[in-house]
Amino acid sequence: MITKILALTDESGQLVRFSLMPGQRGETTGVAALIDSLSFGAVLDDKAYDADWLRDILRERGIEVVIPARAKRLNPAPHDADKYKLLHFIENFFQKLKEFKRIATRTCKTDQRFTAMIQIAATVIRTR
Q1: What global pTM score does this model have?
Q2: Distance separating alpha carbons of residues 19 and 6, to the nearest angstrom
């Protein structure tokens, strides 16, 4: 069983909110629900999140979009390259999360237990 963890972190790389998605699902399908009812200044993501509908939702809410355009995009959207460098904080969070064997190997059988393990791991990461 493959499970994707869709995570939202703050500017220091600490977990704010997350959701689990099936591994075969597209990257952007859970983003709208994840950012619902939250206010923030910018969204930093990689090229997998380059979708017009996502950019439109973020712009309507007054959120800066820092997502590089895919290579084959006909009309590439600009992004702030300096702010994009801060994406490493998010990547670092996932690397710290993978230090926990039960998360890296997905040994929990149910989504409820896997969610609990992620919450425990995020708490341990925050207290380090």
Answers
A1: 0.82
A2: 5
